[in-house]
Amino acid sequence: MIGGRYRLTARLGHGGMGTVWRAHDEVVDRDVAVKEPRLPDHLSARERETMYARMRREARTAARIDHPSVVTIHDVVVENEQPWIVMELVQGRSLADVLNDGTIGVREAARIGLAVAGALEAAHATGVLHRDVKPDNVLLGRYDRVVLTDFGIAAVQGEQGLTETGAFVGSPEFVAPERVLGQRPGPESDLWSLGVVLYAAVEGVSPFRRSNSPATLQAVLSAEPQRPARALSDSGAFGMLLTRLLSREPGLRPDAAEIRQTLADVARPPQQALRPQAGAPGGSAVGRVLRGFGGKLRTSRPWQFGTGGAVVAAAAATTLFFALTGDRAPDGWTTRNEEARVSARLAVPEDYERSADDGAVTYTDPGGVVSMKLTRSSKDIEENSLKEANSWKTFYEDGAKEDYSTTMVEVRSRVTEAKQQGQEAAEVSTTFRPKPDIGEPEEAKKFRHELVYVNSKGVRWLLTVNMPAEGKSRKDGETVYEEAKKSLKINDL
């Protein structure tokens, strides 16, 4: 019996700083988890007190974070001068246990990652860096709950550190390179760790793990991870997110908002992939604000998609097919047959990166400045093209709410009539500013061109091109839109 109320019933696991027990709270009649400090006998009194202080701070740190994916702390009990942490009992397995049985799918990885990213975002908002994001510390509970636990080595802004100067803490293969170098970490360091976790979950191998810790740390600093082939194959957006999360320069990693949006899109079940949120017309995947327009337009083909023989053969076959059918793309462009995804074909710049999800294909310039997306909604649209376009206009002018939160401000949108292969269509042109997260600087204005077409069966196609609102990139984006619109051929008008 601990603290006169917590009866230990079974050992659940152990780690470097303690053993976790299942216990029963005799006062309120519920099962809980209790973390017992377990320290080596050779530690000095000063070292033992440091470890106990770390456990007490772990409890305080987790308790100050209000998020459903952060473990709930119930109590701290001092027994024989040692602090025992009493927390909620998460019924389930750790992600590490699950991965011991094999990899998980991209959609499930995105669902788990979305919850962990939310927990980290909440922690960072309170000045807490977790510093030990790894599969062992991600618990998968009942009712699809995901919980981030073990804040034992967390760094808390404004509090004195408990780690000796120069000492290294964390699990080497999941530690960001700036931490290995002894540089001051930030939220981006936890996001790197999340990227490694998701990479390992889907690809089946940790990108930097080596035979010993020094070799692993050296790999973190200098080794290029293998291309996340399975992730890119199943979801280009997810694969590209992993690649960017593992950027060695912290400033090049995506921010929490972009991670949340991308993972939410990937995690959404197929039948919901194009369903609106909070009144959005059509599909939420295209209703969200696309971020990451920084950088410059480049003309080199991205490395991510390789130059293997199969790829070359497929490209040659595609070129031959469209040559025989009389479709010719402009110089520097290629015609893409997207029959399987969206029942259409269109021309895109040759060096644009392709990603695909259910009912949607996206092409992005190598610098991430201009993006083009074509979606096909299989749900029944009761309105015609013009009314559907006006629904989008209203949605944007209302702030493009997602999960009841405004994502667009300073919106100016207009609708014009158009034609698609001789049929009635409509266009939506929108200038807006993405609403920044709290504490984040204001972003530059963006511009979005969209072609909306709804056929007689209520199936809707939406061609969207996103670009900066000003400068040369605006002109480039306008050209991309006009050429893509002109080349678009829908197969089941």
CATH C-level category of the largest domain = Alpha Beta
Would you give the CATH topology of the largest domain?
A: Protein Transport Mog1p, Chain A
Overall structural domain count: 3
| β-strand amount | 25-35%
Low-pLDDT ranges: 156-168, 272-279, 282-326
Could you tell me how far the N terminus lies from the C terminus, measured between alpha carbons in angstroms? 72 Å
How would you sum up the global shape? elongated
**Secondary structural class:** alpha+beta
The radius of gyration over CA amounts to 26 Å
Q: What is the overall number of helices? A: 14
- Mean of residue pLDDT values: 81
CATH superfamily of the largest domain: Mog1/PsbP, alpha/beta/alpha sandwich
What is the multimeric organization of the chains shown?
single chain
Largest sheet: 7 strands, antiparallel
In CATH, the architecture of the largest domain is: 3-Layer(aba) Sandwich
Strand adjacency order, main sheet: 13-14-15-19-18-17-16
- Count all strands and give the number: 20
Summarize the amount of helix as a percent range: 25-40%
Description:
The structure is a single chain. This protein has 493 residues and is of the alpha+beta class. It folds into 3 domains: 6-88, Phosphorylase Kinase, domain 1 (2-Layer Sandwich); 92-265, Transferase(Phosphotransferase) domain 1 (Transferase(Phosphotransferase), domain 1); 287-490, Protein Transport Mog1p, Chain A (3-Layer(aba) Sandwich), CATH 3.40.1000. It has helices spanning 45-63, 95-100, 106-125, 177-180, 187-203, 213-222, 229-234, 236-245, 256-267, 284-287, 309-325, 339-342, 385-397, 472-487; strands spanning 6-14, 18-25, 30-37, 73-79, 82-88, 92-94, 128-129, 138-141, 146-148, 155-156, 333-337, 344-349, 353-357, 360-364, 371-377, 408-420, 423-434, 446-454, 460-468, 489-490. Strands 13-14-15-19-18-17-16 form a 7-stranded antiparallel β-sheet, sandwiched between helices. It has a 5-stranded antiparallel β-sheet with strand order 1-2-3-5-4, covered by helices on one side. It has a 3-stranded antiparallel β-sheet with strand order 6-8-9. Residues 156-168, 272-279 and 282-326 have low confidence and may be disordered. Residues 418-443 are annotated as: Disordered. ATP binds at residue 35.
